[in-house]
Amino acid sequence: MFPSDLLAGKKVLLGITGSISAYKSIELIRHLTKAGATVRVILTQSGARFVTPLTLEALTGNAVIDEKSENWYSDANHIALAKWADAFIIAPCTANTLNKLANGIADNLLTQTSLAYSRIKIIAPSANTAMLANPITQASMKLLKLANYTLVDTQTKELACKTTGDGALADPMELFYVVARELLRQTFWEHRRVLVTGGGTIEKIDEVRYLSNFSSGKMASSLAIALYLRGAHVCFVSTQFPTTLPQDMCSQKVQSAQSMQEALTSKLATIHAPLAKAPSLVHHDHEHTHAPKTPYLFMAAAVSDFRVAHPSAGKTKKSTLGSTWELSLVENADIIASIDKKNLRTIAFKAEMDATNAHANAQKARIDKGVDAVCLNLLADSQSFGTDTHTLTYIDAHQEIALGMHDKLTLALALLDKAQALEDYTA
Predict the structure, then answer these.
(1) What does residue 113 show for φ and ψ, rounded to 5 degrees?
(2) How far apart are CA 79 and CA 113, in angstroms?
(3) Which of 260, 267, 306, 340 shows the greatest Cβ crowding within 10 Å of its Cβ?
(4) Residues noted as catalytic
(5) CA–CA dist 145, 124 (Å, integer)
(6) Radius of gyration in angstroms for the set of CA atoms belonging to the chain, rounded to a whole number
(7) Domain 11-182 matches domain 187-277+288-421 at the CATH topology level
């Protein structure tokens, strides 16, 4: 799913404590290493009861550090490790370790390293519901947020103790998103409101048939994820969600062109408001209200040009139609052309199959639709849809840049780098 160089050069230190959910740390390591990160593990004595050093070393390619292996003739000690890591995540973190950290207790290698570490600190708790809800534990979590720890919310589900309640470790994919976002966020996109539309719209013929197109929604999903990783406040409005999204990303499912326009109009009505920190799986030190930055709209949806004038109720019977069926179509509104673009940066997507005139058509669309930029996607045929790789050309009033063929997340990240220039033009 993620490009193998997404986290290239990033160093992640993972602390594992004595929770039954320690097995989930194996999946987190897999996600991080596949994305190119270097991972090292500190394993507590209790953690070793649930997952073995051999397993962790096989996955990371690095020796596990614990109380017995700590030394001062290499960097396998709490001071050197604190200097080494770009991000330090403790997952799972038991209530015992959580309460120790909040009170500055450093009685093992993990807590000593945490006390010495001053950069990106992430805690993913895992505990019995009653232990988590204990006022002492709750107070500790508040202290840790004030001490610049990022806390990832637990899940409510059946726990290892056979009771159902809050306390389960967050899913490994969610933990990956938290780590990756902390490592990849950029000042330009951080706390900026961004709307992304995606997928091919669906226009009903009757209750079982519809008109649509071959759009898979993969590029739009990758773009929404890229913006999330850069720190943007993303709302993704789409007909399809082919990729697992961060659970705290705003998303809204729509179907027709009209429902997409209505959703977009509603979101745009509040897009210029100051950005207050929304409820999230991730909690930082304190609440913020951020000064508004110019919002962006990426219109990556493949909106149907026409809809059926009079969709039928129920299912139209073939026996009532005869040998031919003529549908009366009416034109849909051009959503991107019709919205108010004041104090809004807008990037449209345009698919073309005419290689000779594609670039001229894209420039014309940029002007006719009144958008700041167009992303040109030159297609060969219907088989070009739904692929994992893609080609795009970024076009604005000042530049035309071929972004090449890449996996869609890499392409989305490259697009975001180019789209920043729209702010420079108006500065």
Answers:
(1) -65, -40
(2) 6
(3) 260
(4) 161
(5) 12
(6) 25
(7) yes
The CATH architecture annotation of domain 11-182 reads: 3-Layer(aba) Sandwich (3.40)
Phi-psi region of 187 (alpha: psi -120 to 50; beta: other; left: phi over 0): alpha
Q: State the amino acid at position 338 in one-letter form.
A: S
Amino acid occupying residue 237: V
Closest listed residue to residue 412, CA positions, set 300, 274, 289: 300
Tell me if 9 sits within 8 A of 23, measured CB to CB.
no
Strand partners, 290: 275
**Residue 416 tokens, joined:** 């975001």
Q: What's the pLDDT tens digit per position in 41-66?
A: 999 999 999 999 999 999 999 999 99
> Whole-model pTM?
0.92
- Which superfamily does CATH assign the domain made up of 187-277+288-421 to? CoaB-like (3.40.50.10300)
Domain ranges of the chain: 11-182, 187-277+288-421
The one-letter code for the residue type at 13 is: L
- Residue 90 tokens, joined: 């403790």
> 242-297 pLDDT, tens per residue?
889 999 999 999 999 999 999 999 999 988 877 765 445 565 554 456 668 999 99
d(CA 252, CA 218): 16
Structure tokens at 235: 């709302």
Please tell me the distance from the alpha carbon of residue 234 to that of residue 241, in angstroms, as a whole number: 14
